[in-house]
Each structure stands twice: as C-alpha cells, then as structure tokens.
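Tutorial handout. Part one gives the primary structure; part two gives the three-dimensional structure as tokens.
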Amino acid sequence: MADANGQTYIYDAENKMVTASNASGTLGQIR
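Part two.
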C-alpha cells in the first residue's frame, strides 16, 4: 500500500502498521 506521497506502509498479520518507509528509507517501526 502506498499513499499519495509515495510512502509505503507494511502491515503485519493483525493489519497494524509495523513499518513506514519512503524513498529515503525506513521512517520508523511501531510495535
């Protein structure tokens, strides 16, 4: 999934956002 800003979001099995990244790399991880 990517938003209008070109950021890509990766979700775990529970559909919670675990990583958010863009062209400059990983922005952060949420647990």
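Part three, for discussion. Residues 2 and 8 are 4 Å apart (CA to CA). The first strand starts at residue 8 and ends at 11.
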